[in-house]
Specification:
Blueprint (H helix, E strand, L loop, with lengths): L1 H9 L9 H11 L1 H23 L31 H37 L1 H16 L2 H12 L3 H27 L3 H8 L4 H12 L1 H24 L11 H10 L6 H28 L7
Helix pairs in contact: 2-12, 3-4, 3-12, 4-5, 4-7, 4-9, 4-10, 4-11, 5-7, 6-7, 7-10, 8-9, 10-11, 10-12, 11-12
Length: 297
Amino acid sequence: MQRITEQTATEPVLEEGSSLTRDAMHRLFKNRLALVSAGFLLLLILVALLTPWIAPYAYQDQNLLLGASSPSAQHWLGTDTLGRDQLTRILYGTRVSLMVGFVATAVALGIGVLWGATAGYLGGRVDNAMMRIVDVLYALPFAIFIILLTVIFGSSMLLLFLAIGAVEWLTMARIVRGQVLTIKRQEYIEAAIAMGLSRWRIIRRHVIPNAVGPIIVYTTLTIPSVILLESFLSFLGLGIQPPQSSWGSLISDGVENMENYPWMLIFPALTLSVTLFALNFLGDGLRDALDPRASKD
């Protein structure tokens, strides 16, 4: 028994392996600012889902006799020029803005990543042809493009998602292409080619995952950009239609009345600003955590 114990004690202890996902989660949990931002965004999404039950008033209710009133016990964030409760409109605007931001960004992400990765990896004439298409679309004024889609297919929220996504994917494609041009010269890509893997499998399993850092960062920048783009379209009458509201339309209304009723601009602008900062901080944290080339702690 003693010999067995001594033999067991002299055996080398094998260290437990660590996956890329575990390493990424470990790096992310060490970034407190990213975790706080993620918590804020999750809370914002929860508030958006529960808005019909927690909003103090109906979003279409008006009180013309009350008009624009400053924050009070009845209306915590004041009312607009039509006597509508600002807190209620910001809560419902959160639902619309987040939906526009996430769905349109998902459309842009799907098209841009696939387009850019394919063009950058294949290179040559394929790359040249695909990127010339991007250049031509860049030259088209996006407002005219969206107006044309609205005239042909009519105004709807789904069309707004697709139209904005069809505009925002161009920059994503260029960013991904630039990353892929660098990645495809790496040794592990040459090893995958030597093993006989197909081009599509190399792009899906090796190229895109190693470009995820810049993709995540630009995605977090695209969401607020999409929200601001929606506000511009709402100003032209092509975005969210009344009585529905979004952060962009509320800010547009606040700008028109900022001298007399500053609360109409301050609260929706503050909500948008805090959300923008949270998305940027979370994006930086995810970039550091998901980068496969980051060294192990």
